[in-house]
Amino acid sequence: MYAIDLKGITKIYKGGVEALKGISLQVQEGDFYALLGPNGAGKSTTIGIISSLVNKSAGKVTVFGYDLDTQLEQAKSQIGLVPQEFNFNQFEPPLQILVNQAGYYGIKRKEALVRAEKYLKQLDLWEKRDQPSRELSGGMKRRLMIARALMHEPRLLILDEPTAGVDIEVRRSMWEFLQLINQQGVTIILTTHYLEEAEMLCRNIGIIDKGRLVENTSMKSLLGRLGTETFILDVDPPTHLPSSDAFSIKQTDEVTLEVEIDKAQSLNKVFSELSAQGIRVNSMRNKANRLEELFIELVEKGAKNV
Amino acid sequence: MFNPSYLVALKSIWRKETNRFLRIWVQTLVPPVITMSLYFVIFGNLIGSRIGQMNGFDYMSFIVPGLIMMSVITNSYSNVASSFFSAKFQRNVEELLVAPVPNYVIIWGYIGGGVTRGLMVGFMVTCVSLFFVDLHIFNMFILILSVLCTSVLFSIGGLLNAIFAKTFDDISIIPTFVLTPLTYLGGVFYSINLLPEFWQSVSHFNPVFYMINAFRYGFLGVADVSLVWSFSVITAFIVGLYSLVAILLSKGIGIRS
């Protein structure tokens, strides 16, 4: 079953700006899906339409089979939304925000308090439950919005740049939490500007540019399109820059080499050539910008086609 | 069919709204009580004693119902107007818009908050008035019905104002330039029988006049126009404004892009 099924969605804002130009997109139940695109591409508008904050101009949206036009309340019940901007009442404490939100979904106060405790504890906010939420740090506010979105235990969680502006430690703990709830069966749609985040978390990916879906495929197949792969090697200080006819190599600092090899080539060949030139490799890692390269390529291609 | 979960949602909105004005009670509950106390002292005691009687009652007894009603009107209105506009401004209205809550539950939830504050302030002002006048209640049913209907009507008015408002100025313009003149000219301080015939006719176009008229009847048992006509006008305004608000919300005007 599709968690969401968009057919020919268009959005024309007042003033004639065409934000979406007939987007069709399906996300399977249980998926962890990345929706990427440059600023102003139409990601937030798409999310706004799915979560019924934005009125679409044309097209059809179904959420777990519920039509947004005819079964709005059933469709809304399936979705938990974590928006890009902080949109809770900054004067209310986290516990009150969560209990109120549960109430809007028809969850009685007694049950709401139990759920609020569970999610506030899971997201490390329990100690701050009675503090005015304006006093929370940026990372805490982001986690509060995730807790709020989960209060009615939705089948689909939509996160619009959930880790924007949070430090790497908090970001990683949020990734772990999102992976956990995805494993528990919650479908997740994520927009982000951190391509490393999308690459690490998501199984499938859609790229929106200028209101059009320019790519919709699995992360694996998208990354598989890269003809080459770049590795970073930590080495003992080399006496000279090694040379090779088989692959491109450059020295980024005294003890680091960057090697770009063709997908068809074997890594063994790299090691044997470097070894033959007296270079000792201490460790190796993949350069984590593979998706970034593809993203830029796709968006640039789109720009040329317009 | 009414879904029981809507009742939970309605209670949640009402509780949130009530908590909001109770949290800031110094801004919401105290000022109207102080203002009305000044009215009682200045207009009732000092000036009123020189005015004599109005419609057969001493001036203080005559103006007390109007002043209570004035505080109910302004507090019901401003509670909903400022709360809903703040929710739009801070975007936490989105919490409601993404939830499976029908528009009528949202409307009645906000009305519930406005009515609670209006009645709470009205009760406090009534208590203060007891220091100045010996209050007698002529008809409790009419009294409660009129204050309830008025509070509902002006809560809807506040919601309508907040839906259209784009800045904080927009939610103070209507109370200043429309609500206050209507209230002052609605017969709080005088019987419209004192006015020249032309202005008496003009007063009949003022909805606040009918509310104060019905409320005063509840206290004193005297009215400038019939109660049936008063309640018909109030009901018509409630139905009209409610329908307008319901249509606006269903089209997403002022709340959805």
From TrEMBL, chain A:
Q: Which domain of life is it from?
A: Bacteria
Checking SUPFAM superfamilies in the record gives: P-loop containing nucleoside triphosphate hydrolases
Q: Which GO terms describe its molecular function?
A: ATP binding
Could you tell me what this protein is called? ABC transporter ATP-binding protein
Instruction: Tell me which PANTHER family the record gives.
Output: ABC TRANSPORTER ATP-BINDING PROTEIN, ABC-TYPE MULTIDRUG TRANSPORT SYSTEM, ATPASE COMPONENT
* Keywords of the record: ATP-binding, Nucleotide-binding, Transport
Pfam families in alphabetical order: ABC_tran
ABC transporter domain ranges (all copies): 4-235
TrEMBL record, chain B:
The entry's localization annotation reads: Cell inner membrane; Membrane
Say yes or no: keyword Metal-binding present: no
Pfam families this protein is in?
Answer: ABC2_membrane (PF01061)
Keyword Transmembrane helix (UniProt) = yes
Per the database record, which ranges form the ABC transmembrane type-2 domain? 23-252
- Keywords annotated in UniProt: Cell membrane, Membrane, Transmembrane, Transmembrane helix, Transport
Q: Which InterPro entries match?
A: ABC-2_transport_permease, ABC2_TM, ABC2_TM_bact-type, ABC_2_transport
> What family does this belong to?
Belongs to the ABC-2 integral membrane protein family.
**What is this protein's name?**
Transport permease protein
Native source species: Psychromonas marina
